[in-house]
Specification:
This protein has 2 domains: 154 residues, Jelly Rolls (Sandwich); 104 residues, Arc Repressor Mutant, subunit A (Orthogonal Bundle). The chain is built from 12 helices and 9 strands. The strands form 2 sheets. The protein has a 5-stranded antiparallel sheet with strand order 1-8-3-6-9. Strand 4 and strand 5 form a beta hairpin. Helix 10 crosses helix 11. 35% of the residues are buried.
């Protein structure tokens, strides 16, 4: 993996945490997939059971991180006579919920504190900030949760929790460089031949290995990268015509057709929906 590939990927998808609870948690607490966000739960102490639709329950009896990368109905269940110390944050992506993190990760990631390297400093700062009411507290909590999410991504790669998808590709000795280059410059006129040359593989070998590791064709991946970048630029107020050029389409109609194929709506309709959230 290249030294800064994860930074490029996270910048590309625009991962953002927003803390909404820090402190004692009692009883039942439901988190609805219809809210359209992922969740990070930092369980500092106490015991609880996490229940999620379609998956076995998770018993938490030691300090643990629970990361739900994509929207999923789930519940934190603390026994009636018990209290858990928990910090909860929602997780959003500027590039939309279909992105390299949500596509590469399992539906829920369970990580005991003891398994993460250098987590103590992050957690010390996080809980110290949560326990006080200093100016800028919310921003500090959100940024510290962002750091935790980066540590979770590193852990998932190191432990082999991602077997397919972009994160697996970034750990691949031949595919990592071309993936980073495509993330950095999606507007270039990429072809399968130029991608294969960047990976030092033949066209056929590259195509087969790319599909095996990423679960998509090179063209599908490139389109996804371009549309994800377009979503971020549109959120920033860039006109559709300029966005089309910035992400590699030679005309606004061509860009709009690709956007509709990926997301089912036009760029302008998608942007209106975001402003109504």
């Amino acid at each position: 993996m290249t030294s800064d590939s994860i930074s490029r990927l996270l910048d590309h998808i625009g991962l953002r945490a927003a803390t909404f609870h820090a402190g004692a948690l009692c009883g039942l607490h439901d988190f609805d997939a219809d809210d359209g966000v992922g969740h990070l739960h930092v369980i500092r102490s106490g015991t609880l059971r996490a229940r999620q639709t379609g998956y076995p329950g998770i018993e938490v009896s030691e300090p643990t991180l629970l990361f739900y990368p994509r929207p999923l109905n789930h519940r934190l269940d603390v026994a009636p006579d018990a209290v858990a110390d928990v910090l909860c944050a929602s997780v959003r992506y500027d590039a939309g919920t279909e992105n390299p993190i949500t596509q590469s990760f399992p539906s829920v990631v369970v990580i005991p504190f003891r398994a993460l390297k250098r987590i103590d400093l992050t957690l010390s700062a996080l809980f110290a900030e949560a326990g006080e009411d200093n100016p800028g507290r919310q921003v500090m909590l959100d940024r510290l949760c962002d750091i935790l999410l980066i540590q979770i991504v590193r852990f998932a790669i190191e432990q082999g929790l991602v077997q397919q998808g972009v994160l697996a590709g970034l750990a691949h000795s031949r595919l990592a460089k071309v993936l980073v280059d495509m993330l950095d410059a999606p507007r270039l006129p990429w072809t399968v031949n130029s991608m294969a040359a960047c990976s030092h593989l033949s066209r056929n070998a590259f195509t087969q290995e790319f599909r095996r590791v990423l679960g998509a064709t090179p063209a599908e991946f490139l389109t996804g990268v371009r549309i994800a970048l377009a979503q971020r630029l549109l959120r920033k107020g860039r006109p559709v015509a300029l966005v089309a050029d910035e992400v590699g389409y030679n005309s606004q109609p061509a860009f709009s057709r690709a956007f509709i194929r990926e997301l089912g709506v036009s760029p302008s309709a998608w942007l209106r929906a975001q402003t109504c959230e």
